[in-house]
Specification:
6 strands, alpha+beta, three-stranded antiparallel beta sheet, single chain
Length: about 160
């Protein structure tokens, strides 16, 4: 069993072996890759640069690892932004339903805030899930320098 070790983060260096796209009208994309898992120690404070090696091509991949406190703080901020986006969505939707359901006298138009609430609804529908998924995937490790077709991915248990 692969248990997490305190003070470390498990990541994988991803080497893309092939990327095929087929079809004209309906596009189908198939990507194959090879992962090399690493367990990287977090610094006590601040940021630390590590160099990892891809096992498929022996290329050097540099990554930056943040400390545990900064990682937790960033995750909390992303989840707070997701919650605020949901709140904006609910309030803007309620306002749009309230104002849009009114019968207006002839010649009178909807208030200026009505189109703004529609735009806020559209933005919040995309922002809330994006912030939440990003908070789940955030590990505090970012790629600094890598050759083409390489990436750093979090490893989840």
């Amino acid at each position: 069993m692969n248990r997490p070790i305190p003070g470390t983060v498990q990541i994988a260096v991803r080497h893309i072996l092939s990327d095929h796209t087929t079809g004209v009208m309906t596009r189908t994309r198939r990507i194959t890759w090879q992962d090399t898992p690493y367990r990287v120690r977090r610094p006590a404070s601040g940021k630390h640069t590590v160099e990892l090696t891809c096992s498929a091509c022996d290329a050097a991949v540099r990554a930056e690892v943040r400390d545990e406190a900064a990682t937790r703080r960033t995750t909390r901020i992303l989840r707070t932004l997701a919650a605020l986006s949901v709140l904006v969505l609910v309030m803007a939707f309620g306002y749009a339903v309230h104002e849009g359901g009114k019968t207006l006298p002839e010649g009178q138009s909807l208030p200026v805030l009505f189109p703004i609430s529609i735009i806020a609804i559209a933005l919040a529908i995309f922002a809330a899930p994006m912030f939440f998924v990003t908070s789940l995937r955030y590990t505090g490790v970012s790629k600094l320098d890598a050759p083409k077709l390489h990436g750093i991915m979090p490893v989840r248990n």
